[in-house]
Amino acid sequence: MQPTSVPMAEPVESERCDAARNRALLLDAAALLVAERGADAVTMDAVAARAGVGKGTVFRRFGSRSGLMHALLDHTESELQNAFLFGAPPLGPGADPIDRLVAFGRARLSMVEVQGDVLRAVENSPELRFGGPARQVSLTHVLTLLRESGTVGDLPLLAHSLLAPLEASLVLHQVRDLGMPIERIADAWEDLARRVTST
Predict the structure, then answer these.
(1) Which residues form the HTH tetR-type domain (predicted)?
(2) Spatial distance between the Cα atoms of 46 and 67, rounded to a whole number of angstroms
(3) What is the residue-wise DSSP string for 46-102?
(4) Does 9 have pLDDT greater than 60?
(5) Considering only 43-52, 73-82, 103-112, 142-151, which range has the smallest mean pLDDT?
(6) Domains along the chain?
(7) Per the omega criterion (within 30 degrees of 0), is the bond before 126 cis?
């Protein structure tokens, strides 16, 4: 009697590739909807329709609208994280820590300008606003740069304080309601960062 053949791992790998492709398809559909209508108008139904899948697929993948928005933010955050962890200076390694801190703030503000509605939607979720992985990575990065620059004081609190003016809800209010240009906000943030690190 011939031994039963053992299935190869290819179907599992193919399934993983399909799952990753489907996830990217859903996130791309969500990003297009955000660009067209704003984050507040994006629903699980709309994302499913745009991606050409059933609503259940979206819920299975992300759990809730808040989960979808968080995944979309992580998707867009990965480029910023790669830039400050591995990219070219001054944002990436190799530059003076204060110059890197300034570059980080400016890059974050540019991202808020483009992805502000998504960031605001995530910030409005209490469990994700301050405890989400993306914020934790940013907080650790800022704290590391403060230490490397020789800044004195309560560094964890200073790191939180430097991130606060970069929050999407505040920046969107400044830009949309107060009419402040993003360049003015970035210049003011740089001034704040340089003052904090000059001690």
Answers:
(1) 20-80
(2) 15
(3) HHHHHHTS-HHHHHHHHSSHHHHHHHHHHHHHHHHHHHHHHS-TTTSTTS-HHHHHH
(4) no
(5) 73-82
(6) 8-63 (1.10.10.60), 65-196 (1.10.357)
(7) no
